[in-house]
């Protein structure tokens, strides 16, 4: 049996874009709109990410690198494969005959030309019902329930909005819950939502075949610190869900730092493995983030062996006014930078945003755990630590049989900040989200100014320079968002010599890689990293690259940072076909369930 | 005039008091500037600084700036030409002058409470902290006025005098505080140092024609203090830092080979008369008749008070204020050269070797031409050096060991002085244009006898004549390629200078920004 999961995902993504944004356009414009939207959001290449990177690295200039990228991702051959949904291109005949698979795919094919109405709830649609049926199949006669658990990333406990907000809203509404989790208290970055135990108890008493769950706020612990704290919190959160979820199986979608957090469940909570169908990483920090490494190096220079907590405490006592300024470089490449980067703060202040309240938040940050535990968080996200984790845990001892790990990655183009492709204008380029412009009445036009864009732009420029071929989603470089066993590069291509030394000095790592024939440090550094764990030792881990989308690290938010209500009720919106993306992904996961369940039944 | 009696201000004049036209202009400019900034970084910073492995070579600071400017220019043009018919009109003319003025002068204006102006001011301050604090004043309501006229800007005496007073105070402050080692307030000193790397004043003037956008015109002029060199006895101790006006002779990162010479060294204000106020004037003129071309001029000279139409008097005539480049005459032999050309080049090279040649750049004129291409997309405005529109003087110099040799050089129009150690004579001759230098090597000059005439032995005379003919032929045939090769080489020289300039500026700005005092 053979399924090209990457092509399937991209075919479905293209199809869902067409159904939502193209079929409703005037007929004579449809083809142009479709092309613009595919170029704007879909980055499919039959080539592997390793090939794309290798070619981009051969560029002589950054412009050349950009051209190479376009040659891969906008290649006519790739585009032709996506233009019309044709399941035969990616699912072989044998797989299509599996129980439930034919019916599932038929519904998708039969509804290829159904335009999606505005405001339509996906789960109430024909395709949504089809999805639920597919997830309900457990390979036998029993009906199973499946939930996708969204786990956001760095500093997520300080962000009030859900990731993939639109699909989460649909799921909540379909299940009879309020469209979003009521936020009971918001004091700056301290967010207190309605308890998940009561929120998810709402609605139908009977469990549904498929649901989407989303931990938030303090439930996530301190998401700037150690991964393990959030991992344990997630495990506890799952355990304490209402009774109707007691038999539910889970798929974890880990976004950014959320990816290593959910994967750590295999290590820290092995008892959960029988309930876990698989993992999806979206822009996940799978092999580390250069920003974390840069942060650690900077901290080493500034702190000079003084523990971070002590450093902060001392400076707070001696010169509290200077503290935020002194530690601001630590934030310069992180999502939280907007709290302390003076220029960003001043810019926000100039737009009428109450900067003092940010000052108070900054002070709250300094007084709390977020800053004191920054180093812990950075260590866990560093390339060295993520590679170490992968070498030790991507194996059959940690993963149950047939556990899939799907990777999805963003590739950002800085140009999209100044001329973003607009969904609402048929994929035409719209006005800049970075440029402050005025309305006719002389007030700032908040609909066209994105705080997210300002923060991301100013804090991510170094990242483009640090990323091989400039392939970067504005937080994580392309290769680092893929599972180690998919990556053919040697470790020496991404780890510094001292990092390799440290890994080689780790007896557990050395023992593991020795089994693959890496008997010396030289071989360890030079061997393709995917070969450092023997295939038979990791056969339970089905790592699959679903490829790339054109977008950035925050495309999955409507808008993470919004102007305060007293400044503007309206705000900019990240133009990204989030629902189309999630509908495509969910259908891929549903098909995967049918295939796995059928195979499981057969064995 | 003390610094406390001065303040930075933006003075602007628009043809209309209609706010919506100003809003339209602000939005257009904001989008274009942002586009330039973001596109510049998108094109120049991909994979150029990898922590591990081989990085992609990024363009120099000079080309980064060109990329950003190219994108800005493109976006500006797009918005100008592709504005919706129902879009708000642009101001017919607008002029903005930013500089340092006496506080009393600025306070004398009616301070209108324009929300959009206040917002624009706050945004500008946030983006460029070195601007603040500044006042924003509109000029219609008083006598003094700026008016874009004939594509330029006329300044009433009142504004010019006040601006001159403020600028001189700023230059004096750089000299008094940044260039001295005396004890003074450290923060004041570093602020003065930082101001040496910021414009003295900037003027933007534009006229827009909504009906015929190609009749629109913009002009940007920036007056900068002279380039300074940062000296530090202890890099970690700002109290030991000081600036020195000018740049001592520096070897270029690698010798730059142009068609007729090899450039090895550059310097600025090495022998300048420091009682004058040397500086740099940059001007970018843009009309939209030819959307693919922008003209940029960079002048090296000195500022002086003026009552002409100019904002500031600027004299680029003294070679001591210019950018100096050391040339070694060298015509490279090429594969396609025939025996005559090859022999001529070799002869010319032998002749030029006995002189040291220095080029003094008084004004560089660059035409920025957009790369042509079939696609209607923005492309880099590639600088093309125009020898014809630039002002470069040359000095050739030779040490004569004997009186006879000195006399022959003197006969060829050379000035001379005896060397201090009595070992001979330093003989030199100035040429105002490349043509004159060429004529000199070519054997005859309207400014005096050529090379052929100054060589006294018959053998030398024969050689001189041969060299003269050959050099003239080679230079005549090479002038186009000289210009072309200078495009790149000047870019490299400017790049090297810019990197040093930017590094010093960043060091100072970093110190000020971090407040590590």
Task: Summarize it.
Chain A is an alpha/beta fold and 603 residues long.
Major sheet size, sense and barrel closure of chain A: 7 strands, mixed
Give me the Rg of chain B, rounded.
26 Å
Classification by helices and strands of chain B: alpha+beta
| Mean pLDDT value of chain A | 87
Low-confidence stretches of chain B: 141-146, 442-479, 513-517
Mean pLDDT of chain B: 73
| Number of H- or I-type helical stretches of chain B | 11
Which term fits the overall shape of chain A? globular
Nearest-angstrom radius of gyration of chain A?
A: 23 Å
Beta-strand fraction estimate of chain A = 5-15%
Structural class of chain A: alpha/beta
What's the tally of helices of chain A? Answer: 27
Q: Assign an overall shape of chain B.
A: globular
Layout of strands and helices, then pairs:
The complex is a heterodimer of chains A (603) and B (517).
Chain A: H1 5-22, H2 30-41, E1 42-43, H3 49-57, H4 62-73, H5 76-83, H6 93-96, H7 101-110, H8 126-136, E2 146-151, H9 165-174, E3 183-187, E4 190-193, H10 196-199, E5 210-213, H11 227-239, E6 249-255, H12 258-263, H13 265-268, E7 276-282, H14 290-303, H15 308-318, H16 320-331, H17 342-350, H18 355-367, H19 369-372, H20 374-381, H21 383-393, E8 403-411, H22 415-418, H23 451-466, H24 497-504, H25 507-514, H26 521-526, E9 541-550, H27 578-602
Helix pairs in contact in A: 1-2, 1-27, 3-4, 7-8, 8-27, 14-20, 15-16
Chain B: E1 6-14, H1 19-44, H2 61-81, E2 93-102, H3 103-107, H4 115-127, E3 134-138, E4 146-149, E5 152-155, H5 157-178, H6 186-195, E6 201-207, E7 217-225, E8 228-232, E9 241-245, E10 247-257, E11 261-268, E12 277-287, E13 293-304, E14 313-315, E15 323-329, H7 339-353, E16 356-370, E17 381-385, E18 391-400, H8 403-411, E19 415-418, E20 425-431, H9 434-442, E21 444-445, E22 448-449, H10 451-454, H11 458-514
Parallel strand pairs in B: 1-3
Antiparallel strand pairs in B: 1-2, 2-6, 4-5, 6-7, 7-12, 8-9, 10-11, 11-15, 12-13, 13-14, 13-16, 15-16, 16-17, 16-18, 18-20, 19-20, 21-22
Helix pairs in contact in B: 1-2, 5-6, 6-11, 7-11, 9-11
């Amino acid at each position: 049996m053979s399924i090209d999961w990457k092509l399937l995902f991209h075919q479905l993504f293209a199809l869902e874009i067409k159904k939502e944004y193209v079929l409703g356009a005037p007929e004579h414009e449809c083809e142009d709109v479709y092309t613009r939207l595919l170029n704007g959001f879909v980055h499919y290449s039959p080539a592997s990410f390793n090939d794309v990177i290798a070619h981009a690295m051969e560029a002589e200039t950054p412009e050349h690198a950009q051209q190479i990228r376009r040659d891969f991702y906008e290649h006519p051959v790739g585009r032709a494969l996506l233009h019309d949904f044709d399941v035969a291109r990616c699912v072989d005949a044998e797989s299509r005959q599996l129980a439930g698979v034919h019916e599932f795919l038929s519904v998708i094919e039969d509804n290829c030309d159904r335009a999606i109405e505005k405001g339509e709830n996906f789960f109430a649609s024909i395709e949504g019902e089809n999805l639920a049926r597919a997830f309900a199949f457990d390979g036998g006669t029993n009906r199973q329930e499946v939930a996708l658990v969204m786990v956001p990333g760095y500093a997520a406990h300080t962000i009030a909005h859900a990731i993939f907000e639109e699909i989460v809203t649909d799921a909540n509404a379909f299940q009879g819950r309020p469209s979003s989790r009521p936020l009971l208290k918001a004091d700056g970055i301290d967010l207190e939502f309605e308890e998940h135990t009561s929120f998810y108890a709402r609605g139908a008493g009977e469990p549904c075949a498929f649901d989407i769950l989303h931990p938030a706020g303090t439930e996530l612990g301190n998401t700037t610190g150690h991964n393990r704290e959030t991992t344990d919190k997630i495990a506890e959160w799952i355990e304490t869900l209402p009774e109707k979820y007691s038999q539910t199986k889970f798929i974890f979608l880990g976004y950014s730092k959320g990816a290593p957090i959910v994967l750590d469940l295999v290590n820290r909570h092995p008892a959960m493995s029988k309930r876990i169908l698989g993992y999806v990483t979206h822009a996940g920090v799978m092999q580390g983030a250069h920003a974390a490494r840069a942060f650690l190096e900077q901290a080493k220079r500034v702190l000079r062996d003084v523990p971070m907590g002590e450093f902060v405490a001392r400076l707070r006592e001696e010169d509290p006014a200077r503290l935020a300024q002194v530690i601001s470089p630590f934030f310069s490449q992180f999502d939280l930078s907007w709290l302390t980067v003076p220029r960003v703060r001043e810019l926000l202040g100039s737009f009428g945003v109450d900067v003092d309240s940010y000052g108070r938040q900054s002070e709250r940050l300094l007084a709390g755990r977020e800053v004191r535990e920054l180093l812990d968080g950075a260590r866990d996200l560093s390339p060295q630590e993520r590679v170490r984790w992968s070498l030790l845990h991507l194996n059959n001892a940690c993963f149950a049989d047939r556990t899939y790990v799907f990777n999805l990655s963003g590739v950002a183009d800085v140009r999209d900040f100044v001329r973003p492709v607009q969904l609402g204008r048929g994929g035409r380029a719209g006005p800049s989200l970075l440029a402050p412009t005025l309305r006719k009445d002389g007030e700032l036009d908040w609909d066209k100014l994105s705080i997210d864009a300002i923060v991301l732009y100013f804090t991510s420029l170094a990242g483009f320079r640090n990323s091989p071929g400039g392939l970067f989603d504005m937080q994580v470089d392309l290769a680092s968002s893929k599972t180690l066993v998919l990556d053919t590069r040697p470790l020496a291509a991404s780890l510094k010599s001292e990092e390799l030394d440290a890994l080689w000095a780790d007896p557990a790592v050395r023992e593991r890689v020795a089994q693959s024939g890496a008997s010396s440090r030289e071989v360890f550094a030079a061997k393709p990293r995917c070969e450092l764990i023997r295939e038979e030792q990791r056969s339970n881990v089905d790592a699959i690259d679903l490829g790339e989308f054109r977008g950035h690290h925050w495309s999955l938010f409507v808008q993470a940072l919004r102007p305060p209500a007293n400044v503007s009720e309206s705000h900019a919106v990240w133009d990204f076909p989030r629902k189309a993306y999630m509908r495509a992904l969910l259908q891929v996961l549903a098909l995967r369930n049918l295939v796995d369940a059928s195979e499981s039944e057969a064995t | 005039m003390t610094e406390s009696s001065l303040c930075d201000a933006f003075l602007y004049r628009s043809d209309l008091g209609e706010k919506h036209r100003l809003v339209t202009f602000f939005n257009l400019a904001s989008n274009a500037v942002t586009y330039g900034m973001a596109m510049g970084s998108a094109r120049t910073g991909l994979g150029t600084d990898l922590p591990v492995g081989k990085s992609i070579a990024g363009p120099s600071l000079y080309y980064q700036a060109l990329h950003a400017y190219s994108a800005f220019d493109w976006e500006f043009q797009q918005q100008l030409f592709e504005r919706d018919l129902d879009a708000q009109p642009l101001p017919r003319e607008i002029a903005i002058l930013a500089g340092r003025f006496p506080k009393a002068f600025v306070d004398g204006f009616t301070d209108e409470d324009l929300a959009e102006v206040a917002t624009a001011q706050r945004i500008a301050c946030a983006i460029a902290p070195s601007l603040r604090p500044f006042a924003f004043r509109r000029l219609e309501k008083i006598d003094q006025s700026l008016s874009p006229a004939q594509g330029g800007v006329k300044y009433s005496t009142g504004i010019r005098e006040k601006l001159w007073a403020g600028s001189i105070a700023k230059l004096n402050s750089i000299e008094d505080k940044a260039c001295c080692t005396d004890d003074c307030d450290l923060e004041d000193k570093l602020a003065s140092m930082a101001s040496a790397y910021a414009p003295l004043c900037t003027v933007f003037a534009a006229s827009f024609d909504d009906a015929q956008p190609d009749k629109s015109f913009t002009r940007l002029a920036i007056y900068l203090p002279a380039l300074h060199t940062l000296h530090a006895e202890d890099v970690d101790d700002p109290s030991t830092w000081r600036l020195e006006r000018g740049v001592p002779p520096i070897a270029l990162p690698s010798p730059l080979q142009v068609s007729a010479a090899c450039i090895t060294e550059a310097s600025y204000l090495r022998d300048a008369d420091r009682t004058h106020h040397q500086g740099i004037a940059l001007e970018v003129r843009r009309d939209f008749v030819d959307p693919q071309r922008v003209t940029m001029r960079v002048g090296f000279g000195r500022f002086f008070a003026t009552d002409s139409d100019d904002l500031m008097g600027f004299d680029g005539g003294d070679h001591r204020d210019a950018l100096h480049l050391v040339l070694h005459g060298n015509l490279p032999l090429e594969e396609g050269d025939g025996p005559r050309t090859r022999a001529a080049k070799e002869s010319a090279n032998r002749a030029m070797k006995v002189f040291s040649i220095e080029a003094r750049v008084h004004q560089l004129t660059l035409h920025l031409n957009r790369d042509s291409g079939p696609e209607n997309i923005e492309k880099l405005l590639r600088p093309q050096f125009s020898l014809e529109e630039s002002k470069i003087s040359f000095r050739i110099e030779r040490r004569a060991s004997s009186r006879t040799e000195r006399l022959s050089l003197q006969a060829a129009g050379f000035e001379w002085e005896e060397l201090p150690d009595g070992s001979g004579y330093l003989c030199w001759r100035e040429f105002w244009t490349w043509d004159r230098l060429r004529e000199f090597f070519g054997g005859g000059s309207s400014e005096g006898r050529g090379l052929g005439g100054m060589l006294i032995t018959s053998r030398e005379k024969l050689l001189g004549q041969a060299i003269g003919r050959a050099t003239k032929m080679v230079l005549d045939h090479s002038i186009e390629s000289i210009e072309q090769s200078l495009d790149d080489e000047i870019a490299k020289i400017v790049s090297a200078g810019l990197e040093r300039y930017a590094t010093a500026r960043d060091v100072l700005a970093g110190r000020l920004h971090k407040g590590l005092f």
